[in-house]
Amino acid sequence: MKGKILVIDDNDTIRDGIIKVISKMGHEVKGARNGREGLSLFNGSSFDFIISDLKMADLSGIELLKKIKETNKDTLIMIITAYGNVETAVEAMKLGAFDFITKPFSPELLRLKVEKALEVTRINFENTKLINENIYFKEQEKQTYEENKIIGSSEALNKILEQARKVALADSSVLITGESGTGKELIAREIHNLSLRKDKPFIKVDCSSLAEGVLESELFGHEKGAFTGAFYKKIGRFELADGGTLFVDEIGNLSQLIQLKLLRVLQEKEFERVGGTKTIKVDVRIISATNKNLEEEVLKKNFREDLFYRLHIIPIHLPSLRERPEDIEILSQYFLEKLSKKTKKKVSEIAPKGMEILKNYR
């Protein structure tokens, strides 16, 4: 794991020596000349591991440790000192220090400590990701296979399903258009289930129900302390969908800011979490859906033209139910049986007059 490490020491020689060793390991490393500068760097960015001197004129390592732990208790911090004693080490560990070593120390010991800290960081990240995945997939468990079935046998629907089968293996972005309720998510799931990504996650996000700030966090995740109320690191939908498919519903509602960030992910396949500086690379297929006319939205300058063409590589338009009336009877029977089970009432069919009314209803 390549990490981002902060080294805080008011001794230039020692600080530069530590930075040199860590840089040679291939990690990104920044240095601070005193405790307050280190605290400022920490508050302005995110680090996987912090190495701090104990004795510094402006802010001691113990004071720095307390302040950092108040902001983010999960940050790993190692205290280094030339004045080591058991009492100081015990105090540092009680306050949450990851480790405590005395000067002078060998480059080999430093490398060992860095590798150990980054391994702990990796495990913590995987656990956080697993927790986020469990929360998301528990929400999805409510949607059973029966609820995701595509019901109908009309020629119009069969053409759509045939189109879905053809585009499934293409791995290009798909834009599904159609009125609300035409089954855009069902078709998106069908494309995923027929694709080479079928064994990877199918993750969805609804752009119509979330404010800009919330949606940004949902899509890209955020670091702990990124904003008021960000009490923990959140893994976004893009990371959860890595290797699989991300279904972005009602994409026509995206703000200009989110459109720009989404365009970057489509072009570069990378992004940063809100409040973070570490670039995260992902392999995600985007299937988007909207009930808006995005071409008109582009002309009105409400939707970016470059993003539209990135999303519109494979377009699929879903016909409304009134355009495929042959499916009304089979859909009605499906919902009747479902409702009968739910209400525990034995209703087996719809009267001919009732079916006639349904078929003639716009």
Summarize the structure.
With 362 residues, the chain is of the alpha/beta class. The protein contains 14 helices and 12 strands. α1 links the parallel β1 and β2.
Description of the structure:
The protein is α/β, with parallel strands linked by helices. The chain has three domains: 4-123, Rossmann fold, CATH 3.40.50; 149-320, Rossmann fold (3-Layer(aba) Sandwich); 325-360, no CATH class. Helix content is 46%, strand content 15%. The protein has helices spanning 12-24, 35-44, 61-71, 86-94, 107-140, 155-168, 184-194, 212-220, 237-240, 256-268, 294-299, 305-311, 326-343, 352-360, and strands spanning 4-8, 28-32, 49-53, 77-81, 99-102, 174-177, 202-206, 245-249, 270-272, 279-281, 285-290, 314-317. The strands form three sheets. Strands 2-1-3-4-5 form a five-stranded parallel beta sheet, with helices on both faces. Strand 3, helix 3 and strand 4 (77-81) form a beta-alpha-beta unit. Helix 2 (35-44) packs parallel to helix 3 (61-71) and helix 6 packs across helix 7 (184-194). The longest helix has 34 residues, at 107-140.
Structural class based on helices, strands and sheet pairing = alpha/beta
What is the total tally of β strands? 12
CATH superfamily of the largest domain: P-loop containing nucleotide triphosphate hydrolases
Number of domains: 3
Main beta sheet strand tally, sense and closure: 5 strands, parallel
Q: How much helical structure, as a percent, in the residues?
A: 40-55%
Number of helices: 14
Q: Give the strand line-up of the largest sheet.
A: 2-1-3-4-5
Unreliable stretches (pLDDT < 50, length at least 5) are none
Question: What is the fold-level CATH name, i.e. the topology of the largest domain?
Answer: Rossmann fold
- SSE sequence, one letter per element: EHEHEHEHEHHEHEHHEHEEEHHEHH
Q: For the residues shown, what is the average pLDDT?
A: 87
In percent terms, what proportion of residues is strand? 5-15%
Q: What's the oligomerization state?
A: single chain
The radius of gyration computed from the alpha-carbon positions, rounded to a whole number of angstroms, is 27 Å
Distance separating the two termini: 59 Å
